[in-house]
């Protein structure tokens, strides 16, 4: 198969982790006789520095004409403490999601048997955890009306959802639930927010189309608590943009390291694959970042391209590296650790 994949390394540790994923994908291409054509493009602070725009038109062109997008990370501390900055790296990511129509962010949380004791949570609580968040990604407060009034002393961001936006996300949730354990949890704050009431109403109306799926409705504050207490109670969770942002960071604690969890952002056509961690600027250039979340994101990409065996081969080699202790320092617990590039080389060699 001939594949064109847009490669967006982004900022901080992005380029380093992306490089390892490319090694692994290239090894997969050799083994399974595919041809991967990588098209590198600028995004984030790197793009602001180069061309003054965190998501340049050329990058959009590259993404929208590829089969998939593999993305590193975005963000640079020089923008974080400057509320007056006019352009920010994150705007690039948001614009990319919107322009590529990536409305569904799939964020799985699972545990690795060999890492169960790395989690700060008790083994008996998290063993066997395997859940997936579907976070709405192109609506809500991230894209609502925002502004200042009162000479700058009042600021507002509004959360707006249409029934159609909720429906298309919920449909992906129901469909995923049908493929898994037929359990769906709709996370909202319907006791307070009107937009949440529209979520609940819309999802309730869809229930009859999926009679086999058991749907529960829970408030986001309660889920935040129960998620780390009883993660095994959950399977597929659907939620709006900001709740999903917060809960998926929280959920990553279950797996023991943020450096492990992959994600996919899907729309009607193209998919974007990225680790859920950020640009981790303190580690940039040191060859110490954990590349596994990005490598596992590449596995999700192969899966969605219907290359299931290839995806399985990547997951197997990742499991083997963990079992054999070929890990970066975040997972080494004072024992022997490997550099980012060494882990990438090992994975590629063992595909
Ligand atoms: C994420 C990130 C982004 C978000 C930021 C960088 C804009 O935290 O992908 O979860 O809030 O969506
Ligand atoms: Mn986030």
Automatic annotation (TrEMBL):
Pathway in which the depicted protein is active: Amino-acid biosynthesis; L-leucine biosynthesis; L-leucine from 3-methyl-2-oxobutanoate: step 3/4
InterPro entries on file: IsoCit/isopropylmalate_DH_CS (IPR019818), IsoPropMal-DH-like_dom (IPR024084), Isopropylmalate_DH (IPR004429)
Enzyme Commission number(s): 1.1.1.85
SUPFAM superfamilies to which the protein is assigned, alphabetical: Isocitrate/Isopropylmalate dehydrogenase-like (SSF53659)
GO CC annotation terms, alphabetical: cytosol
Any one biological process term the GO annotation gives: L-leucine biosynthetic process
UniProt-annotated binding residues for substrate: 97, 107, 135, 221
GO molecular-function term, one example from the UniProt record: magnesium ion binding
UniProt key word Calcium: no
Co-factor: note: Binds 1 Mg(2+) or Mn(2+) ion per subunit.
UniProt keyword annotations, A-Z: Amino-acid biosynthesis, Branched-chain amino acid biosynthesis, Cytoplasm, Leucine biosynthesis, Magnesium, Manganese, Metal-binding, NAD, Oxidoreductase
Catalytic reaction annotation: (2R,3S)-3-isopropylmalate + NAD(+) = 4-methyl-2-oxopentanoate + CO2 + NADH
Residue span, Isopropylmalate dehydrogenase-like domain: 4-347
PANTHER family from the UniProt entry: 3-ISOPROPYLMALATE DEHYDROGENASE
NCBIfam families noted in UniProt: leuB
Similarity comment: Belongs to the isocitrate and isopropylmalate dehydrogenases family. LeuB type 1 subfamily.
Oligomeric and partner information: Homodimer.
Function according to Swiss-Prot or TrEMBL: Catalyzes the oxidation of 3-carboxy-2-hydroxy-4-methylpentanoate (3-isopropylmalate) to 3-carboxy-4-methyl-2-oxopentanoate. The product decarboxylates to 4-methyl-2 oxopentanoate.
Protein name: 3-isopropylmalate dehydrogenase
The organism of origin for this protein: Lentiprolixibacter aurantiacus
Annotated gene: leuB
